[in-house]
């Protein structure tokens, strides 16, 4: 799937900014910056990776800047960023 640079979300409290760009090497390259990474980093990464898998994204660079987003917000932001990056509407 062809991926362009795109983002979704904000760096505001209780939100997450997801930035997606084409992969420089095969696979998902995920970077997470979060003030709660020591407590919830594994869960945040799990949600991001599961959502990418559901959307059939296998190769991409993801930068996630978290400010305490809840699970459903993380999933929504990843989905929106992928829709913008691919031009594909996954809800059709």
Question: Could you explain the architecture of this structure?
Answer:
The protein has one domain (6-86): Ribosomal Protein S5, domain 2, CATH 3.30.230. The chain is 37% helix and 25% strand. The protein is built from 2 helices and 4 strands; from the N terminus they run E-E-E-H-E-H. It has helices at residues 37-54, 71-86, and strands at residues 6-8, 16-21, 28-34, 60-66. The protein has a 4-stranded mixed β-sheet with strand order 1-2-4-3, with helices on one face. A hairpin with a 7-residue loop joins strand 1 (6-8) and strand 2.
What is the CATH top level name?
Answer: Alpha Beta
N-C termini distance: 17 Å
What letter string, H or E per element, gives the SSE order?
A: EEEHEH
Assembly status: single chain
Number of helices: 2
Helix content: 25-40%
The figure for the number of domains is 1
Give the structural class.
alpha+beta
For the largest beta-sheet, the strand count, sense and barrel status come to:
4 strands, mixed
Shape: globular
Give average pLDDT, whole number. 95
Backbone CA Rg: 12 Å
Question: If strands are numbered along the chain, what order do they take across the biggest sheet?
Answer: 1-2-4-3
Number of strands: 4
Poorly predicted ranges:
none
Strand residues, percent: 25-35%
- Shape-level CATH architecture: 2-Layer Sandwich
- CATH topology group: Ribosomal Protein S5, domain 2
Brief descriptors of the model:
Ribosomal Protein S5, domain 2, 92 residues, 2 helices, single chain, four-stranded mixed β-sheet, alpha+beta
């Amino acid at each position: 799937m062809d991926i362009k640079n795109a983002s979704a979300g904000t760096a505001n409290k209780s939100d997450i900014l997801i930035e997606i760009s084409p992969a420089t090497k095969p696979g998902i390259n995920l970077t997470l910056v979060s003030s709660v990474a020591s407590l919830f980093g594994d869960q945040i990464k799990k949600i991001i990776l599961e959502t990418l898998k559901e959307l059939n994204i296998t190769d991409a660079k993801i930068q996630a800047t978290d400010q305490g987003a809840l699970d459903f917000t993380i999933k929504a932001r990843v989905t929106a960023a992928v829709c913008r990056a691919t031009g594909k509407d996954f809800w059709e």
